[in-house]
Amino acid sequence: MPAGTVLAGVSMGAGVIGDLLADRRDTAGVLLVHGIAEIPASARAGLPVQLHVADPDAFAPPAAVAAWESAATDAGAVVQVFTYPGVGHFYTDATLHEHDEEATALTWHRSMDFLRHL
């Protein structure tokens, strides 16, 4: 994959990123929505990573997010974490009862800004 590639994962798909990242050190950045992924110690220094999760989220509880952020930073990644209080796990899915229009709009705005600056 070209160096400009961004690895993006949604919910369970976020977990795949950790497996891919170990072999793709030149990736331009990592975007995670609704889930966390291991950032391997072999990640390149300065790797931009952005995370968007509900707060609280049963699949990414606050303590797990804090531990993940610390580990990702220790691995050399430059991490941005955005949490969305009071929304459900899949708050961006308009077909689900947990959908939150305001949090969804903010997530996509922040994500697009992240991608534009890579």
Can you describe this structure in just a few lines?
The model has no long low-confidence stretch (mean pLDDT 94). The chain is of the alpha/beta class.
Features:
118 residues, alpha/beta, four-stranded parallel β-sheet, 3 helices, 4 strands, Dienelactn_hydro, Dienelactone hydrolase family protein
Mean pLDDT across the residues is 94
For the largest sheet, list the strands in their spatial order: 1-2-3-4
Order of helices and strands: EHEEHEH
Q: What fraction strand?
A: 15-25%
Task: Give the helix/strand layout.
Blueprint: E1 6-10, H1 12-21, E2 29-33, E3 48-55, H2 62-74, E4 78-85, H3 101-116
Parallel strand pairs: 1-2, 2-3, 3-4
Pfam families: DLH (PF01738)
Protein name: Dienelactone hydrolase family protein
GO molecular function: hydrolase activity
What would you note in describing this structure?
This protein has 3 helices and 4 strands. The protein has 118 residues and is of the alpha/beta class. It has a single domain, classed as 3-Layer(aba) Sandwich (Rossmann fold), CATH 3.40.50.1820. A 4-stranded parallel sheet has the order 1-2-3-4, sandwiched between helices. Strand 1, helix 1 and strand 2 form a beta-alpha-beta unit. The longest helix has 16 residues, at 101-116. The chain is globular and about 40 Å long.
